[in-house]
């Protein structure tokens, strides 16, 4: 096995296990999951490349599905108390605009889920946002309705055309330089995108150079350290081979972000029930050979209610399914 770490370029790694394509069931070939012996990043080997995009991302891929919805006109939403509090937390804690009493209060409020799930879910007049891997543009439309000037980068031609029909400024490509060369952004987001790239260091440097001084990177992606990942291993729903090239832990992601010049303001996990119920479906279907119709497990209200307390505890222990990072350009 010829292994090259996508983060540190080391050629020495330990094979952990192999996993098959499970989401679409198009092939039974196994994919190697390897831990780098130098930086400890876990990754797919060999990596999925940009040339394979059309093969691995069919029209019914999850982030593409909303493109089928009929577009509705963009209109500003009414500002609520939650919007104002989120704005206060962002300005006081992340941007450090006020004195220490406000920063302490902002930091205290930042631990609540209503902020962590949508840290920039507030009115952003005169603020600019670039969403990398914007898919069908759902997140861009949400932020546009809050007054943000939004821009998107997306590799899928069909998704780009769909976004443009909805009035969104979206460019096709894999790097920011393919869409914008001079523009600097207040916020750049990567929502469930970073795990797909084959050049993490280059992506982070590209983001850093494209942010204004004091600009912020907002990112979320699957957490390899999560309880579900460690229990289900190759049957973990968020493993999603061969689309996910990178499997990060809080430690490996922190190292890459900090070494790229960012100051990490917040790192936390927020779990989705799908990470557990989807993994159970895969395990029953592919390991035990039990026929399970799609959605039979994830749609179970009883199972979701049963798992919810455990999932909340795991988030407190940084063992949740999805790892979130808020990092500021110094």
Q: Could you outline the blueprint of secondary structure elements for this entry?
A:
Elements: E1 13-20, E2 30-36, E3 42-45, H1 53-56, H2 81-94, H3 100-109, H4 113-116, E4 128-132, H5 138-144, E5 149-154, H6 157-165, E6 169-172, E7 185-191, H7 200-210, E8 211-222, H8 227-232, E9 246-247, H9 250-259, E10 262-270, H10 274-287, H11 301-316, E11 322-329
Parallel strand pairs: 4-5, 4-7, 5-6, 7-8
Antiparallel strand pairs: 1-2, 2-3, 3-9, 8-11, 10-11
Could you explain how this protein is built, in words?
The chain has 330 residues and is of the alpha/beta class. It has a domain at 48-268: Rossmann fold (3-Layer(aba) Sandwich). The protein is built from 11 helices and 11 strands. It has helices at 53-56, 81-94, 100-109, 113-116, 138-144, 157-165, 200-210, 227-232, 250-259, 274-287, 301-316; strands at residues 13-20, 30-36, 42-45, 128-132, 149-154, 169-172, 185-191, 211-222, 246-247, 262-270, 322-329. A 7-stranded mixed sheet has the order 6-5-4-7-8-11-10, sandwiched between helices. The chain has a 4-stranded antiparallel sheet with strand order 1-2-3-9, with no helix packed on it. A hairpin with a 5-residue loop joins strand 2 and strand 3 (42-45). Helix 2 (81-94) crosses helix 3. The longest helix is centred in the last third of the chain and has 16 residues, at 301-316. The chain is globular. The model has no long low-confidence stretch (mean pLDDT 91).
Number of helices: 11
Structural class: alpha/beta
Strand-residue fraction?
Answer: 15-25%
CATH class of the domain at 48-268: Alpha Beta
SSE succession: EEEHHHHEHEHEEHEHEHEHHE
């Amino acid at each position: 096995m010829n292994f090259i770490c996508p983060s540190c370029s080391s050629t020495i790694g330990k094979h952990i296990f192999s996993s098959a394509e499970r989401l679409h069931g198009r092939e039974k070939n196994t994919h190697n999951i390897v831990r780098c012996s130098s930086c400890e990043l876990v990754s797919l080997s060999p990596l999925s490349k940009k040339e394979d995009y059309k093969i691995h991302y069919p029209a019914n891929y999850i982030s593409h599905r909303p493109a089928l919805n009929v577009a509705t006109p963009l209109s500003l939403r009414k500002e609520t108390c939650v919007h104002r509090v989120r704005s206060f937390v962002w300005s006081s804690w992340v941007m450090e605009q006020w004195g220490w009493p406000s920063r302490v209060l902002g930091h205290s409020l930042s631990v609540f889920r209503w902020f962590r799930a949508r840290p920039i879910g507030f009115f952003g007049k005169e603020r600019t946002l670039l969403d990398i891997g914007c898919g069908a543009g759902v997140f861009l439309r949400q932020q546009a309705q809050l007054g943000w000037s939004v821009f998107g980068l997306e590799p899928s031609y069909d998704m780009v055309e769909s976004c443009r029909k909805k009035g969104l400024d979206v460019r096709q490509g894999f790097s920011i330089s393919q869409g914008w060369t001079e523009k600097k952004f207040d916020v750049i987001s990567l929502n469930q995108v970073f795990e797909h790239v084959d050049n993490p260091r280059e992506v982070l440097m590209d983001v850093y150079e494209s942010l204004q001084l004091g600009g912020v990177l907002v990112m979320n992606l699957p957490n390899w350290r999560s309880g579900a990942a460690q229990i289900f291993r190759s049957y973990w729903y968020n493993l999603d081979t061969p689309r996910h090239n990178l499997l990060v832990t809080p430690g490996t992601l922190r190292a890459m972000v900090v070494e790229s010049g960012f100051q990490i303001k917040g790192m936390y996990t927020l779990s989705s029930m799908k990470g557990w119920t989807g993994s159970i479906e895969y395990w029953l279907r592919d390991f035990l050979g039990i026929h399970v119709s799609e959605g039979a497990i994830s749609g179970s209200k009883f199972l979701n209610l049963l798992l919810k307390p455990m999932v909340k505890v795991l988030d407190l222990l940084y063992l949740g399914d999805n790892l979130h990072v808020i990092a500021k350009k110094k």
